[in-house]
Amino acid sequence: MMIGKQHPAFAANELAQRVRRFVDDHILPSEPLLAGEDDSARKLAGSLSGRAREASVFGNFYPPEHSDHLANLTDYIAVAEQEGRSEYAPGILGADATLDAYMLKRHASPVIRERFFLPLVQGYAVSSYGMSEPDSIGSIPATMTCRAELRDGIWHITGRKWFICRSQVADFVTVVTRTTDGPVAQSLSMIVVPTDSPGFEVVRPLPLLGRDQGQAELAFNDVQVPYDHVLGQPGQGIALMQERLGLGRLLRSAHWLGQAQRCFELMCERVHSPKGHLARLADKQLVRARIYRVYRGIATARALVLDAARKFDAGIANSIEVNLAKLAASDAVSEAADNAIQVMGAEGLSDWTPLANIYRNARTTHILDGTDDALISTIGRQLLNATAPGASFDPACPSLRLSRAAE
Length: 407
Description:
Elements: H1 8-27, H2 31-34, H3 39-54, H4 73-83, H5 89-92, H6 98-107, H7 110-121, E1 127-130, E2 147-151, E3 154-165, E4 172-178, H8 184-187, E5 188-194, E6 200-205, E7 215-226, H9 237-272, H10 274-278, H11 285-314, H12 319-344, H13 346-349, H14 355-364, H15 372-386, H16 398-406
Parallel strand pairs: 1-4
Antiparallel strand pairs: 2-3, 3-7, 4-5, 6-7
Helix pairs in contact: 1-4, 4-9, 6-7, 9-11, 9-12, 11-12, 12-14, 12-15, 15-16
């Protein structure tokens, strides 16, 4: 998509620089206040979102007809990195709503699009997604027990979900629920549940590593919503989950790269600072090795994210590439935070720098959105299938063989 007379890559770079300036000038200085759990933190985030809309750095990858920015995921990755420099920036800049915006645009009924999609892309509604359950295995959809029964055109939803992001402030939750007793490929559906529905309950917040990160447990006590609140068609839950995961993991991975890059910059700043010169950090081989390893990890993860994004834009199968990118980005931010703290010393463990919070967030990336163990096992199985005797394995497009075998 051409923006004015600019080449898309040039437009993406210019937008990335504007996003970086906004994040550095307005969000980073406000992080201590944004970390609060009271109304003042939410009001500040809302005020900053308004300023972001005024500065035209809000909703940078919404569906094209609802954004003046980018319609290409590959070009957006550079912008997403700058959004990810602060853990609060994706929410303030509307990036947290990107995935739900695409899902509603593609699969929601006209009623849902009018009630929730337009407020979402305008920055006046908050979305959430409910999949994991207390008594099920998140990576095994067949173990889900949340149920929705259709009676006289009304869905009756009963069950629990937990570790659901933004659910305490959300206007609606897209709930993955069982709608039939058949095979799991046809028995799960996604239903949009307004959070003001009778029977919807936020049971409790669920801190991660001792810190509130917006996760909560939810209860659905015979919550009733109309039939047209289902996304797509009943029974399409697995297909929609896979669609969400592909785009969602790439969006999150790009944001993690932004946090990793921030850690790298803080580490280099310390080396070049008066304290760093006093300790002669730049002359120490171990410090140089840390700088190298962090930079290599970020560069490698960025290349994998971009490879998966290009295939996403081209409509090429990319399941292996997406999972590789997610794992690499998770490793990159974890290694960056750990090494930056090591170079910073005790100060890196304190609240005087953002490193302690980034370190906690980095550890959660190895669990949320697919655990490392599950993704590594899946990639190994897929690669073995793709390289089986008689298979035409293409290392440049390893997922292609899998998609053709499934046809």
